[in-house]
Every structure is written in C-alpha cells, then in structure tokens.
Write a structure and sequence with these properties.
Elements: H1 25-36, E1 54-61, E2 64-71, E3 86-92, E4 95-101, E5 104-110, E6 115-118, E7 123-127, E8 134-141
Antiparallel strand pairs: 1-2, 2-8, 3-6, 3-8, 4-5, 4-7
Length: about 140
C-alpha cells in the first residue's frame, strides 16, 4: 500500500472534523510547573506594590491564560470561590489558604513549588502572613 502524498500535512485527510479538547487539570499543572522553572521568562515582569496584589498577564495560548501575582506582606483577599478551574503555585514567599466548608473552617500554608487546584465551588480566602512579598503563577481555561 502506498500513501497518498497529496494528503500529507492535512489535519484529517478523510474529511472528518478534528475536535480540539480543552487542556486537563494535569496539563494546566504541567504548564505552571514548567513555567515556574524558567524565571528568565517572567521575572522581569514582576512588580511590587505595597497597596495590594499586582496581577500581570503572561500569555494566552491554546485556550489557557497564564499570569503571575505579587502579594504584599499582610495582604488578605476577600472570601471567594472560582467559577472555573484554576491552577496555581507559590514560587516565592508564603501564602496561607483559609477554606470554608460544611465541615468547618481550616487554614493551611501553601508551600512553594506545589501545584494547587482551585475551583469546584470551594470557598476560600488567601493571606500573605509573611514579612516579605509572595509571588504566585496561575493558569486557567479561557
């Protein structure tokens, strides 16, 4: 059998529609993990503002939005939840997450270089309890 060379390079030479699926949570986590290992790609964009967090857009590719956030010492977010799925990691400093569930209120530190998944209607609040700025990287589906 000899392949038809005129069909080479087509998405689907048989005319079927190619369905592009959104990235999985694991793929979002992989992007964040890989990006955090390349500070040369984002460190020059970090901005420190004592008045509040600074959100800096980094990229939007293949239906995924990437950004970084700097958190001043002592800053606390309002209580909120995420409509969609968001993946993040702390890359510098420290943050704490306060979760509110039907079982009660829990607080836990968010460790550096560990990917966190937010969403699914979980209500939480973030705070920077440390004496220095914290920096986080985030990814979400557009």
């Amino acid at each position: 059998m000899v392949p038809d060379l005129t069909m080479r390079g087509q998405d689907d030479p048989h005319g079927r529609t190619v369905v592009r699926r959104p990235p999985t949570v694991g793929q979002l986590a992989t992007r964040i993990h890989e990006l955090s290992a390349r500070p040369a790609d984002w460190w020059h964009r970090v901005r420190f503002e004592p008045a509040g967090p600074v959100r800096v857009p980094l990229d939007e590719v293949d239906g995924v939005r990437l950004w970084l956030t700097t958190w001043p010492p002592g800053h606390r977010t309002d209580l909120h939840d995420h409509a969609g799925t968001e993946v993040s990691t702390v890359i510098a400093g420290e943050l704490a997450e306060i979760r509110i569930t039907a079982e009660g209120v829990t607080e836990r530190p968010l460790r550096t270089n560990r990917v966190q998944v937010h969403g699914g209607g979980r209500t939480h609040e973030l705070t920077n309890p440390g004496p220095a700025y914290a920096i986080t990287l985030h990814a979400t589906l557009v």
